[in-house]
Amino acid sequence: MSLDDITRRLRAAEIRAGRAPGSVTLIAVSKVQPDDRVRAVLDQGHRVFGENRVQEAAGKWPGFRDSHGPVDLHLLGPLQSNKARQAMELFQAIHSLDRPKLAQALARLAQELGQCPDLFVQVNTGEEPQKAGVAPSGADEFVSQCRALDLPVKGLMCIPPADEQPSLHFALLAKIAARNGLPALSMGMSGDFEEAVMQGATHVRVGSAIFGARQTG
Ligand SMILES: *Cc1c(COP(=O)(O)O)cnc(C)c1O
């Protein structure tokens, strides 16, 4: 696989889904990948990347931005409130907003900094105890809490259970987004991004299919 292959498959999926070509954002998930693989994708002109950890991203992206110019960075992994400031300074989007305490911290910082990344509320569609995200039954209320704090919630994000049909989870996420008037859907990874596009994904998060297998993480 490569960036070109994935981009071609994404365009084909957009067309099959009756979506405008180029309308789905491809987030290249570079967590844990060696720098030379990330640089190769940057050299091909790609400028939208995803990371799971604030610390790891802070270690490598300032350098890549120096060498390659502006990059849209998306935080995909859990965010602790005490890292919220650093995350807001580094990332253009945060996909893991999932609890009131974090929402409050982001709202305070947004006031102070005069800006805020695009936010996605993470929904634990499979209600898995080990996974982050608000329960589907609590999503509407949490979205309104975030809106009451003036947070720029753009959409929802989910990571379906590994052993279940992802399409059911994508459909559930799309339904929750629609009834809350949220335009963005962050769903679909290496194994199921085409399916996610069929179900309305606006952002797909593809790691190993672009960069190759990860050593860890
Ligand atoms: C690692 C990760 C991805 C990318 O996974 P791949 O299967 O390598 O495409 C997408 N989303 C999240 C939240 C991740 O942690």
TrEMBL record:
CDD domains annotated for this entry?
A: PLPDE_III_YBL036c_like
Q: Which UniProt keywords apply?
A: Pyridoxal phosphate
Record's InterPro entries?
Ala_racemase_N (IPR001608), PLP-binding_barrel (IPR029066), PyrdxlP_homeostasis (IPR011078)
Pfam families (alphabetical): Ala_racemase_N
Where the record annotates domain Alanine racemase N-terminal, the positions are: 3-214
Stored Gene3D superfamilies: Alanine racemase (3.20.20.10)
Q: Which GO terms fall under molecular function for this chain's record?
A: pyridoxal phosphate binding
Residues with PTM N6-(pyridoxal phosphate)lysine: K31
Q: Which cofactor does it need?
A: pyridoxal 5'-phosphate
NCBIfam families on file: YggS family pyridoxal phosphate-dependent enzyme
Q: Which family does it belong to?
A: Belongs to the pyridoxal phosphate-binding protein YggS/PROSC family.
Primary role = Pyridoxal 5'-phosphate (PLP)-binding protein, which is involved in PLP homeostasis.
What is this protein called in UniProt? Pyridoxal phosphate homeostasis protein
